[in-house]
Predict the 3D structure of the following.
Amino acid sequence: MLASLKIENVAVIESAAIEFGCGLNVLTGETGAGKSIVIDAIGAVLGERTPRDIIRTGADSAKVYAVFEDVGDSVKNLLDEDGIDCDDGVLIISRVINRDGKNTCRINGCPVTVSMLKAVGRLLIDIHGQHDNQSLLSPEKHIDFIDSYGGCGELLNEYRSEYSSLCNIRRQYKALCTDESEKAQRADMLAFQIDELEKADIRVGEKEELTSRKSLIANSQKVIDNLNYVYEILNGESSAVDMISSAADGLSTAGNYMEELREDAQKLEDIKYELEDIVQNVRSSLGEIDCDERELDEIEERLDLLYRLSIKYGSSEEDMLEYLDKARAELDKINSSDEELERLKNEEKIAFEKASALANKLSERRKKAGDELSQAICKELKFLDMPNVTFTVSRRETELTDNGIDETEFLISANVGEEPKPLVKIASGGELSRIMLAIKTVLAGTDGVDTMIYDEIDTGVSGSAAQKIAMKLREVSVGRQVLCVTHLAQIAAQGDVHLLISKSVKDGKTYTQISSLTGEDRVSEIARINGGITVTKLQLESAREMLKNAGNENC
């Protein structure tokens, strides 16, 4: 459950620390005091989308810290996947929202993403705001309630996996079933490209070799002149080789008498041998140089072909050969498309049968869950001052979709003798609030979430219905935690914990305070809710009576 909340610079709340308890926690206060801001702050720390304008005027950032106790195994397992320790069941979550749009999020001191906060938040708290009633007016949302009640999540995921495979096969089949003339044109183009590349007989590294050969032929005379010059120096009259040889002999003779010269004599001898090798290489190279202009023309022509092919198929030899492989594969696929179509057709049949079987199984479970949900909701609505209500689930079978074969819609008849009709056509705001409360009550035992938040669930109700809603909220809060923002004294009196949200102005700035009410302070607040500006003794006595009837006279 949510044990405490600390808020800094969120809207009109400069700083507030709130302690929550088990059971029903009610939040009251004047309109505009900041009750919904507390709910927004809880949503923010649980990863909900939060605009930057939530940051208090004059502050650089907004900060929210939440402490949860006795968190369930589902939360622990999720955190364990990310290496976050929560063995003691205590969870400390923080989120800092900066004006530059950056967020800093932590769980038990470990940095996490906003999406991670949201994933954890779904397991910790179910927040029901006024806008959630509108989901009842959207038939496509109704099936989610049925799946939640019937525990269809795992089966739905299994079906969606098979349905995704079926859709993928159908996409492949459709892609192969293109217009025959278009396919023939593509095959002709591929055949031409393959032929052009195969005739070119491209070899990796060829372009570099040809470029080097071209440069040699173009500069062959310069190379010959330089090689002749080098050969003359090394092996002509008074050649370097002869001089080095003579020097080596002289140094060797001297070395017979001076031991320190023997190593130098050997070095000169080695140099002589190396020079002789160089002379041999120069002579060999002179013999290999061919200045045939016809070869130069052939090289130019080959390089030009490689250049033209590179424009069409890739800049390098590797790219062109890769294009050739892909073209061959695509042409083979087109030529064997009939066999491929037959294979895909068989796979589509098998995948369709699997998906259909799961869809039918899912549909049966939904039908049973829908009937049970209808009965449970009718029972709750009768308690909530809608005794003549008829609540049913309309179901229509469809083709296979991502959601199965079911199209469902909630129908309601609030009066005897009337046919059930879609909620959007007949339900008032007060009826929607009670229907949603009934659904939430029924689903409370199936979602595994320990904390529920109702932001003004009492919209559009009063009198006996308001009292029934209060009693139902108290009932739902047994064994779990419920937070409720309310304007009704009936609900406020039922709370196990009563928090007052008040607003004041100081030095031209607005400040919101949050305080826990007990004793006469709580009596005064409930009387204010009932009476307005002026609170009479009779209203105070009435407030005490309401608290006593709720079993909270000593709070």
